[in-house]
From TrEMBL:
SUPFAM superfamilies: Class II aaRS and biotin synthetases. It comes from Halococcoides cellulosivorans. Residues 242-494 form the Aminoacyl-transfer RNA synthetases class-II family profile domain. Its EC number is 6.1.1.20. Keywords: Aminoacyl-tRNA synthetase, ATP-binding, Cytoplasm, Ligase, Magnesium, Metal-binding, Nucleotide-binding, Protein biosynthesis. Pfam families: tRNA-synt_2d (PF01409). One of its GO terms (cellular component) is cytoplasm. This is phenylalanine--tRNA ligase.
Length: 499
């Protein structure tokens, strides 16, 4: 049997009765471990070797652990100093003991935190009292020394040393090989090593030796190891597609902060400050200083809208409104805060109609997690500013948008929002379950929202769920399989976004 040099050498170094590691074989035959492993796998494909892989854990002493091997554990040094000072008879002030034990900096806290835990004594009001203990039998010191000598130790003690950062564990995969019956037969019948080249190199081309060498044959049907290269997340791919569609419809993308003042998240949307949705049960409040500056003119106008309403028929809420609450910072529960910033002229200056803006960004809500809800999600925010807009314009925009994704069975249902009137929710049919799924909310911004922001024409707006759109397009039934801590990695590796 003819085999390439490396394969022949690996086969000759393998044994039918002993499992030998690829690394040892590589050292024996004088080739890199990677080359020996490749040769072993190729021989396994031909049925001449059995290759078994197992994980080995190695334990080594860290730099801090080595320091304590040389100097002693801080708690042991403190105990010895305490006994030398007579603390096993009467309490001794801690200060002199720390000096005697040569403890300073972080080592002091380490010694104090482990002193009582190990039963070396007690510390009360700055005085140390030593117990009757044997520091020479300290299990952690003994285990640390054992690791340094390459010996085994109790797993529980090793876990403690690892938590203290004195040792570290590392895993590596070890491949071991044995000859199969076919391999033994091949060796008995004789194996001839052939110098074959498996790739064309620059040196071969430059020297012209490629004309004389024998090239290895390639088995295009041979099994190849699975590879999972980096790829775009299906949800991100869907977001990029949404952006392409909206830009194609004449919209411009907007951006803004994820953490913002309640003023922009809620107050500008004519959401009363005593509304249940503004409690910690729905919002994620941040323990940070309040927003320092709010635009005075917009702030005053928003407060008037809340207190008095807008226009001759406006009545306001007759409920408390305070600037202190308006300045508090939350994670935005929707991306309509970006719309408020743009309409108020804060983000890009004053805007004259017609205007079309959108964003595809994250929002955060304290929702109960289920197949269609997560604590964070992507919202497709959009609005159009123009004269005399109507619900018909809004519905037509949705029909055009969703048609780009093959969704033509939209349903609309009237609803209530504090910031839009009229308002309606959108629904679509799930392609697998047949369930009618809510996919967004929309409406025409109310005068109580637009007037304080300085807008004197119609604005139609919406917030659509990117994850729900993806579910309708791909047939995914549980958003937790796609996005979040329980994500299905196999789904992410194989799923393609379909439009």
């Amino acid at each position: 049997m003819e085999l390439p040099d490396t394969q022949a050498a690996v086969l000759d170094a393998a044994s039918a009765t002993e499992r030998r590691s690829v690394e040892v074989i590589a050292d024996d035959i004088g080739v890199p471990p990677a080359a020996a492993r490749r040769g072993a796998l190729e021989l396994a494909d031909r049925g001449l070797l059995d290759v078994d892989s197992e994980t080995e854990v190695s334990i080594s002493v860290t730099a801090e652990g080595q320091q304590y091997l040389d100097e002693g554990l801080p708690e042991v040094r403190l105990y010895r100093a305490a006994v030398d000072a007579g603390a096993d008879t009467d309490p001794v002030e801690m200060g002199p003991l720390l000096g005697a034990a040569a403890l300073d900096g972080p080592a002091v806290d380490i010694a104090l935190s482990n002193f009582a835990r190990k039963g070396y004594g007690s510390i009360d009001a700055g005085a140390v009292e030593a117990s009757d203990a044997d520091p020479d039998a300290d299990p952690e010191a003994a285990a640390l020394a054992a690791v340094a000598d390459g010996e085994s130790a109790d797993e529980g003690v090793l876990d403690r040393l690892e938590s203290r950062g004195l040792i570290e564990r590392a895993e590596r995969t070890v491949d071991r090989v044995t000859l199969t019956e076919a391999g033994v037969t091949a060796m008995m019948e004789g194996v001839e090593a052939v110098d074959r080249v498996d790739q064309v190199t620059g040196d071969l081309l430059a020297s012209g030796d490629w004309r004389d060498v024998e090239f290895a044959a390639y088995d295009v049907e041979a099994d190849a190891p699975a590879r999972d290269p980096g790829r775009m997340h299906p949800l991100r791919a869907m977001a990029e597609r949404v952006k392409e569609v909206l830009v194609g419809m004449g919209f411009e993308e907007m951006d803004g902060p994820h953490a913002d003042a309640e003023f922009w998240i809620n107050d500008c949307l004519y959401m009363p400050q005593d509304h249940p949705a503004r409690t910690h049960w729905d919002q994620f409040k941040l323990d940070v200083p309040p927003m320092a500056e709010l635009p005075d003119e917009v702030r005053d106008a928003v407060e008037r809208a809340h207190r008095e309403g807008v226009g001759p028929d406006g009545d306001g809420y007759h409920s408390p409104w305070g600037e202190e609450m308006a300045r508090e910072v939350d994670l935005r529960g929707h991306t309509t805060s970006l719309s408020a910033r743009h309409l108020a002229g804060v983000a890009r200056g004053d805007l004259e109609p017609p205007q079309r803006f959108f964003s595809v960004q994250k929002a955060y809500r304290n929702d109960e997690i289920d197949p269609t809800h997560l604590l964070e999600f992507f919202q497709i925010e959009g609005w159009v500013m123009a004269e005399d807009l109507s619900v018909r314009d809004l519905m037509g925009t949705f029909e055009e948008f969703y048609a780009q994704f093959g969704i033509t069975d939209l349903e609309f249902k009237p609803t209530y929002n504090p910031y839009t009137e009229p308002s309606f929710e959108l629904f679509g049919e799930h392609p697998v379950t047949g369930e009618v799924v809510e996919i967004g909310n929309s409406g025409l911004f109310r005068p109580e929202m637009l007037d304080p922001l300085g807008v004197d024409c119609s604005v139609m707006a919406w917030g659509l769920a990117l994850e729900r759109l993806m579910m309708l397009v791909t047939g995914a039934e549980d958003i937790r399989d796609v996005h979040g801590t329980l994500v299905d990695l196999e789904y992410l590796r194989t799923e393609e976004v379909r439009y």
